[in-house]
Amino acid sequence: MISVTTAMLGRRSTRAFLNRPVPLNEVRDIIDVARRAPSGGNLQPWRLIALAGDDLTQFKAAVHANLKQNPRGDGPEFPVYPNPLREPFDGRRRKCGEDMYAAIGVTREDRAGRLQQFARNYDFFGAPVGMILAMDRSMEPAQWADIGIFLQSILLLAYERGLATCAQASWAAVHKTVRAHLGLPDDMVVICGVSLGYPDVDHPINSATMDREPVATVAELRGFGDR
Ligand SMILES: Cc1cc2nc3c(=O)[nH]c(=O)nc-3n(C[C@H](O)[C@H](O)[C@H](O)COP(=O)(O)O)c2cc1C
Fold first, then answer.
1. Residues framing ligand 1 (Cβ under 6 A)
2. Topology annotation, domain 4-216
């Protein structure tokens, strides 16, 4: 079994998948372990819906039909980013987009190419499993942090099993259709989606490696002496 460090270093957002189904027991086992994620007060505020086969096909068809009528989606249920997005964050976001589009030869000027790649979000990038992560609307920022821990647990556990993932805030932009089609009550917030499947390692989109800030930028180590 691989180490947590190996999973942390090896996992990356994957945006092209093989046409190979993921067995039910793999998905169930990932969720079974991820539910051990910590949460403040042990609230376990997460709710996950995993779709495959006909359920996934019908779900995507409903979302595509909505997007045909409403190309901009349902409007945000919550702001995915602050507006305006301050530096250094805006620069990091731009670089992320540039690196991703560069991997598939889409230039900054190629708006159609960018939109086409963005639209792949609503196909779960061709993954055989699509997941929607939701949470009770009454939750506070601390529970959003809990959700993040649960999400990362899913991503790492999938990696451990040779599977690949992409977390996708883009699904929050179609929250009305997601909620209606999945029968989620109005008091659930659609937080994000997750594509899950076996990675297409030869696809150029999967060659993009995103930078990270150095330790000195993200943390301060105080009182340790020189060692
Ligand atoms: C909560 C969350 C939402 C994300 N939403 C999207 C998305 O909608 N579409 C997408 O292609 N990538 C999405 N990503 C992937 C990020 O762009 C990616 O994690 C980041 O650039 C770092 O790259 P890496 O995951 O390959 O290390 C999301 C990631 C997270 C954690």
1. 12-13, 15, 96, 121, 166-170, 192, 210
2. NADH Oxidase (3.40.109)
